[in-house]
Amino acid sequence: MSAPAAEAVRTVPRITELSSRLITVPLRRHWGAEAPENHLIVTEIQTDDGGAGHGFSWTPTIGPQAVKALLDHDIAPFITGLPAHPETVWDALWKRLHEAGGGGLTTIAMAGADLALWDLQARRAGTTVTGLLGQRQESAEVYGSGVNLHYTLEELVAQTERWVAAGHQAVKIKVGKPDLREDAERVAAVRSVLGPHRRLMIDANQRWDLPATLRALDVLSEFGLDWLEEPIRADDLWAYRRLRKHSPVPIALGENLHTIYRFRDFIEAEAVDIIQPNIVRVGGITPFRRIVELARTNSIRVMPHLLPELSGQLALTLAEPTLVEDVEEASFEQLGILDGPSPVRFTDSRVALTGQPGLGFRFRNGL
């Protein structure tokens, strides 16, 4: 190794500490009896040159204490002393944790370290993470989304009217009532509010099997749907492959796929039209970018799942325009957990940067 190269290796800052804390915050509009709150595991990484990076892991229901335990007892000791480079750390850490599972709680916990490292790199470069990765879009379109299957028909219509008043040109609602006729009534009511030209997507959240999905499509496809999201258990590649062959509506999924290998399996099986990786659930920005490139090489559209203040920043780095999902009154800013300005702003149904350094997330203490 040449002297300059050796010096460059020696001067890469190394991780000295990873700390975490758990925030549980009630939702302003609860997502049903099973999801009245969200959980964030806030992370901070320190380096031997005095640098600091801030990130988080997230889960709406299952396993926040388990995620924190993985961060504190397995991830922190392992990455201490490693060069503070996100991709290097991610690859080593994924191999280390794989015995506990290749995805799921392990990748959710890994996101806490990965986001903090990207934040650290961007702050060191004096820019945003979007700027560090290469901003390709000035803004991205936002669609109105709601966890609203428990809403009455009147509440659902009122929510749709709020989305229209806010200027949204695309919205997504939940389906999966025990009686398909009720789903049809609700979708028809929403379409009536939206009119013929706004886009409408529906999400069944894994409530159906293949025969039920096909029966539902026979009824619901007449409402001009942009996509049907995750109607069948996300593990069932066999069923999705058959569904896509017969579906008159594009099939979207991905919020419950956790590794690039599972996304590859669904893409190669021609079982999906649109993938929806959740940046935290897949393990952070590092794997998200790899999954995006996999999708691009296969002409598959990418629509990031949830977390609009994070997804919005990454959406601006994508070569192809995408839609950013914004669940009503569920952003970090609206939940009141940010200590300082949001890294993004939502205006006229679009999201753009506010110019905060790094990822721009600082979370309030005492929550």
Brief rundown of the structure:
By secondary structure, this protein is an alpha/beta fold.
Series of secondary-structure elements, N-terminal to C-terminal: HEEEHHHHEHEHEHEHEHEHEHEHEE
Alpha carbon gap, first and last residue: 49 Å
Helix content: 25-40%
Portion in strands: 15-25%
Q: What is the number of helical segments per DSSP (H or I, 4+ residues)?
A: 13
Task: Give a verbal description of the structure.
This protein is α/β, with parallel strands linked by helices. It has 13 helices and 13 strands. The protein has helices spanning 3-11, 64-79, 86-97, 105-125, 129-133, 153-165, 180-194, 210-220, 237-246, 260-268, 285-297, 308-315, 332-335, and strands at 15-26, 37-47, 52-59, 140-145, 170-174, 199-203, 225-229, 251-253, 274-275, 301-302, 323-327, 344-347, 350-353. Strands 4, 5, 6, 7, 8, 9, 10, 11, 12 and 13 form a ten-stranded mixed sheet that branches. A three-stranded antiparallel sheet has the order 1-2-3. Strand 6, helix 8 (210-220) and strand 7 form a beta-alpha-beta unit. The model is unreliable at 3-8 (pLDDT under 50).
